[in-house]
Amino acid sequence: MHNKLEKALVDPNSKYYFLVSDVLAVATIISIFAIVLETLPSLSSYGNVFIVIEWTAVAIFSIEYMLCLSISKPTWRYPVIFFGVIDLISILPTFL
Questions:
Q1: pLDDT tens column, 38-69
Q2: How far apart (Å, rounded) are the C-alpha atoms in residues 44 and 83?
Q3: How far is residue 87's CA from residue 78's CA, in Å, rounded to a whole number?
Q4: Torsion over CA of 39, 41, 47 and 50, rounded to 10 degrees?
């Protein structure tokens, strides 16, 4: 299982890598659109939809972060590399 996760998250030669990357890209785009649309006063009645979209995106990125932590060797390495910091910055404000 560990090997499959590693291939899906970090091996660009794996077919699952592109699937994971595409899912993360779509989640990012939807999240950005939701943030932009949330600022429009005419769409304030959809506030609950925007909250669900935000928390779903945060859940997806949190799972990805935890999986990357679990496959990194040593474990402390991922949080200090560039992409680890970016991932943490992207999810931390929602939890705070």
A1: 999 999 999 999 999 999 999 999 999 999 98
A2: 33
A3: 10
A4: -30
Output the DSSP codes for 15-37: HHHHHHHHHHHHHHHHHHHHHHH
Instruction: Show Cβ contacts of residue 5 under 8 Å, excluding neighbours closer than 6 positions.
Output: 67, 70, 71
Long-range contacts of 33-40 (CB under 8 A, 24+ apart): none
pTM: 0.85
- The Cα 34–Cα 54 span in angstroms is 8
Structure tokens given for 68: 């990357």
8 A C-beta contact, residue 65 and residue 88: yes
